[in-house]
Write a structure and sequence with these properties.
Order of helices and strands: HEHEEEEHEEEEHHHEEEEE
Radius of gyration: 18 Å
Enzyme class: ligase
CATH class of the largest domain: Alpha Beta
Keywords: Biotin, Ligase
Helix content: 25-40%
CATH topology of the largest domain: BirA Bifunctional Protein, domain 2
Shape: globular
Distance between the termini: 44 Å
CATH architecture of the largest domain: 2-Layer Sandwich
Pfam families: BPL_C, BPL_LplA_LipB
GO cellular component, one term: cytoplasm
InterPro entries: aa-tRNA-synth_II/BPL/LPL (IPR045864), Biotin_CoA_COase_ligase (IPR004408), BPL_C (IPR003142), BPL_LPL_catalytic (IPR004143)
CATH superfamily of the largest domain: Bira Bifunctional Protein, Domain 2
Number of domains: 2
Number of strands: 14
Structural class: alpha+beta
Strand content: 25-35%
Length: about 280
């Protein structure tokens, strides 16, 4: 079959090869069952949530070359030019206590940081609960985990070749950081393999973040724990303190002048950041 001409329409942003990804990822995987790449979609998370409602099995991966109604946490809009980033969601059905599922976005962040470092050499850090940051503190990626029909759909948006002009002032991309073109396919494969490796160990440990080693590795990649933070709460109030730890259920433990608070959600801003150790 001849190559798709669209694949080479922009040599700095080639289309992903769905068949090659499917073969490379599922050949030796005990988790990933399918990889689908679509040209355009409203939301990869919404599409997999609908599949979960229809009883779809764990291990489906959906990648969009262009997502037009993507959402981040707190229903923020997330958009990226076509083929400039990795927009991927996957469906999981973890057999762990419900409270432990708060670790899934943290597990995903660690896997993404590992993959980005392995493939591109970019040293990133994870900001609780769902961001991947470059060393200058600008955002490389966001993560959104949503419970759906007994499953969890995890979505990731990673800026790969997005230019400075296409990014908000708080954002950056792998190409901006490296000063070079970055191939999305190796990053995607490394990321999904890292997710599988960590996810299987975490599930085998019944979601125990200590026994699985996830808590230790998360702290090594974290730029939040040990930092002075300002947290905007869901009700709009703010909280100032020092992020001291992440607890057994993935909540951020913050020491404030009024006492210690465990946060299951909130929008965190680093006031003074501790560099990641990884």
């Amino acid at each position: 079959m001849p190559d798709d001409p669209a694949r080479f329409s922009d040599l700095s942003r080639p289309a992903l090869d769905a068949a090659a990804l499917q073969s490379a990822l599922t050949r030796d995987s005990a988790l990933w069952r399918s990889v689908e790449v679509v040209d355009e979609i409203g939301s990869t998370n919404a599409a997999l949530a609908a599949a979960a409602a229809d009883g779809a099995a764990e291990g489906a991966v959906l990648v969009a070359e262009h997502q037009v109604t993507g959402r981040g946490r707190l229903d923020r809009v997330w958009a990226s030019p076509p083929r400039a980033g990795l927009t991927v969601s996957f469906l999981l059905r973890p057999d762990v206590p419900a409270a432990r599922r708060g670790w899934l976005p943290l597990l995903t962040g660690v896997a993404l940081a590992e993959a980005v470092g392995e493939v591109t050499g970019v040293l990133a850090s994870v900001k609780w609960p769902n961001d991947l940051l470059a060393r200058d503190g600008r955002k490389l990626a966001g993560i959104l985990a949503e419970a759906s029909s007994g499953a969890v759909v995890v979505g990731v948006g990673l800026n790969v070749s997005t230019s400075e002009a296409e990014l908000p002032g708080t954002g950056t991309s792998l190409s901006v950081v490296t000063g070079a073109t970055v191939d999305r396919a190796p990053v995607l494969l490394a990321f999904l393999r890292a997710v599988e490796r960590r996810y299987r160990g975490w599930v085998t440990s019944l979601g125990d973040p200590v026994l699985s080693g996830l808590a230790r590795d998360y702290l090594a990649w974290s730029s939040t724990v040990g930092s002075a933070v300002e947290v905007t709460m869901p009700d709009g109030s703010t909280l100032l303190g020092t992020a001291r730890a992440v607890d057994w259920d993935g909540r951020l433990v913050v020491d404030t002048p009024e006492g210690t608070v465990e946060l299951a959600s909130g929008d965190v801003r680093h006031v003074r950041t501790r560099p990641a150790e990884a």
